[in-house]
TrEMBL record, chain A:
This is BFN domain-containing protein. InterPro entries: BFN_sf (IPR036104), Bi_nuclease_dom (IPR003729). The keyword Hydrolase applies. Residues 120-231 form the BFN domain. It comes from the Eukaryota. Belongs to the bifunctional nuclease family. GO terms for molecular function: nuclease activity. One of its GO terms (cellular component) is VCB complex. Bifunctional nuclease with both RNase and DNase activities. Involved in basal defense response. Participates in abscisic acid-derived callose deposition following infection by a necrotrophic pathogen. It comes from Glycine max (Soybean). Keywords: Hydrolase, Nuclease. PROSITE patterns: BFN (PS51658). Pfam families: BFN_dom (PF02577).
From TrEMBL, chain B:
It holds the Pfam family BFN_dom. Signal peptide: none annotated. This is BFN domain-containing protein. Keywords: Hydrolase, Nuclease. GO terms for cellular component: nucleus; VCB complex. The keyword Nuclease applies. GO terms for biological process: protein ubiquitination. Belongs to the bifunctional nuclease family. Residues 1-42 form the BFN domain. PANTHER family: BIFUNCTIONAL NUCLEASE 1 (PTHR15160:SF3), VON HIPPEL-LINDAU PROTEIN (PTHR15160). The lineage of its organism: Eukaryota, Viridiplantae, Streptophyta, Embryophyta, Tracheophyta. GO terms for molecular function: nuclease activity.
Length: 231, 120
């Protein structure tokens, strides 16, 4: 039985913090929208903006010392939590071919695609007893850090079916929402780097999609914005 | 020059994020504390032996009366029966004919099952 530890937030050297924390984009909603918009058109912020962003990151970093795990975000109006961005807090996982999950008198049952049933128990005994519910379509992630933990996430039926089709490389006649989003990301010159399941609020999980700019062949000039030039 | 180390992050539903990750073939990471607090451990794996009583009742009611529709099982059984009877009566040409029809019927049934499995 693995012991559950709370997160320890220790402030370290200021320069190191700024250097490390400048990778993710942290800030207010308006700042995010503005920066995302400018990024899409190929423009980077002015010279003053990185310093300003660093100040915001620094301030936010110090604020998190007083937060506990799963606490609401300090930023008003934003329910997403951005302070827990360290790489060592995340575990690589893979998708297993689960069809549906249910909780009943037999315990927690995961039905696999090939007809097998996995009976599971909760990893955290203090988490309380799970309520009984009918079978639901779910996406189950398996942790790859050696513990073999499974994290079931109950989703709608269509995403679950499309995920099974994607895993099995089944060609679907009409393009799905995810193919359209993937092509949009490619067209705009970005590429997907990472997906993280970050936290849970009551009964809903949150996830984040990380993109980086893929093309660095041109130097954008100050008057370049407004037109979508060639790649 | 654009900064290659700059990330842009979006908040998504886990179902959409995981679907995009699988299609783009990028890693999926889960928060360690979230996995510990909400994760499950497998204690038993195999076929579920308990049966659902509703299923049994429905099966019985379905099998109680003939539906009057031509079904593939009846066709398959008739072909098999005719083939075996022809073999006993030493009409080997007819037996080979029935065998080919039976194989065609079974191949068509397999294709149909595969298509139905794809739809679900």
């Amino acid at each position: 039985m693995s012991s559950v530890q709370g997160p320890v937030v220790c402030p370290s050297v200021r320069a190191k913090q700024v250097g490390f924390c400048s990778i993710p984009m942290i800030g207010a909603v308006k700042m995010n929208v503005r920066r995302i918009r400018s990024e899409f058109w190929g423009l980077n912020g002015a010279k003053a903006k990185p310093g300003f962003l660093s100040c915001r990151i620094n301030t936010r970093k110090y604020k998190t010392v007083h937060c506990t795990f799963n606490s609401p975000s300090n930023d008003s109006g934003s329910t997403a939590d951005n302070f827990n961005e360290k790489d060592e807090d995340y575990v690589n996982s893979s998708v297993i071919e689960a069809v549906e999950v249910k909780s009943g008198a037999d315990g927690f049952i995961i039905k696999m695609r090939d007809g097998r049933h996995l009976r599971c128990v909760h990893n955290n005994p203090q988490g309380g007893h799970l309520p009984d519910y009918a079978p639901h379509p779910a996406i189950v992630l398996k942790m790859e850090d050696g513990t073999g933990l499974l994290l079931p996430i109950i989703v709608l039926e269509m995403p679950s079916v499309l995920l099974m089709a994607a895993i099995r490389n089944v060609p679907i006649a009409r393009p799905t929402l995810y193919q359209v989003v993937k092509e949009m990301i490619d067209k705009m010159g970005y590429e997907v780097k990472l997906v993280r399941v970050t936290r849970r609020v009551h009964e809903a999980y949150f996830a984040q999609l990380y993109l980086t700019k893929a093309c660095t062949l041109y130097t954008p000039s100050p008057g370049w914005g407004g037109t979508s030039g060639k790649r | 020059v654009g900064n290659e180390a700059e990330y842009v992050s979006f908040d998504l539903r886990p179902s959409d994020a995981i679907n995009i990750a699988v299609r783009c073939k990028v890693p999926i990471q889960v928060n360690k504390y979230l996995a510990y607090s909400d994760g499950m451990r497998v204690i038993e794996s195999g076929k579920l032996s308990t049966q659902f009583p509703g299923m049994d009742g429905r099966l019985f009611t379905e099998m109680d009366r003939p539906s009057g529709q031509p079904c593939s099982e009846t066709t398959e059984f008739n072909l098999l029966h005719n083939m075996l009877k022809a073999v006993v009566e030493e009409r080997y040409k007819d037996a080979a004919l029935f065998r080919d029809q039976l194989n065609q019927l079974r191949a068509g049934k397999n294709m149909k099952n595969r298509y139905e499995a794809y739809l679900t």
